[in-house]
Amino acid sequence: MHQALVIIPTYNENENIEAIIRAVFALAEPFDVLVVDDNSPDGTAQIVNQLQQEFPNRLHLEKRLQKSGLGTAYVHGFRWALARNYAFVFEMDADFSHNPADLVKLYNACAQDGAEVAIGSRYISGVNVVNWPLSRVLMSYFASIYVKVITGMKVHDATAGFICYRSSALEKINIDRIKFIGYAFQIEMKYRAYVQKCKMVEVPIIFTDRTKGQSKMSNAIIQEAVWGVVALRIRQLFKQL
User: DSSP H helical segments within 40-181, as ranges?
Assistant: First the structure.
């Protein structure tokens, strides 16, 4: 077992999962991988099972009974990682929108530079997004401004999902109290880290939209994020976070 674990939540990612796993294991820095699969009907978990024969003790699979949301998948993975004493725990998408090579930059920000939370940021050095329509770029960019205004949190990419957490940060955040399951989960994690005064840094990355498979974005997820930010701030004001 290594000290760094990459959590990859999946639902119908059979077109991407083998390639992303091999890309992580090809890096010079040793990372373990945990796939949290929500019972994908397309056989994603079966592909991971086959690859476990090739990568024993480095590739792990947790298969859940149903599709239960991004946030709960990551919380499941965080608990799994903490129970096994990983020092550094990563969030990463399966679809190559996050470049696996950037895992090393996030790792170094925590392991060498002392950050407790390292965020792979699309907006810390301009707008670094490839293949998104302008409407979605604007929605994402202004969502982060909205989060800044409501919460006071000085993070340029509040909805980012490519992140390294020290295990100490996950313990401070108290993952058992996480409420949101969609992209509001990403905001809640950062806000809880901010409230706990964790040292957060943003590392510039280039985000590239998926070329295979389907996006999981929906109107319900967007609405959860919009109203969730207000709810987080209110709960913090009343010391109920």
Answer: 44-54, 70-83, 103-111, 134-151, 167-173
Give the model's pLDDT for residue 1.
66
For the chain, what's the residue count? 241
- C-alpha distance from residue 55 to each of 16, 24, 42, 86 (Å): 17, 12, 22, 18
**Is the separation of the CB atoms in 74 and 9 below 8 Å?**
yes
Please give the single-letter amino acid code of residue 160: A
Question: Which two structure tokens, joined as six digits, stand for 201?
Answer: 């840094």
Q: Tell me which DSSP letter residue 9 carries.
A: E
DSSP 149-215: HHH----S-TT---EEEEHHHHHHHTGGG----STHHHHHHHHHHHHTT--EEEEE--EE--SSS--
Give tens-digit pLDDT for 7-34.
Answer: 999 999 999 999 999 999 999 999 999 9
185-237 residue pLDDT tens:
999 999 999 999 999 999 999 999 877 766 555 555 566 666 777 777 777 77
Provide the token pair at 203.
Answer: 């590392």
- Give me 108's structure tokens: 């170094």
Sign of torsion, CA 231 232 237 240?
positive
Cα-flanking dihedrals φ and ψ of residue 203, to 5°? -110, 125
| Number of H-type helices and E-type strands within the chain | 8, 9
The per-residue b/e assignment along 67-93, b for 16 or more CB within 10 angstroms, e otherwise, is bbbbbbbbbbbbebbeeeebebbbbbb
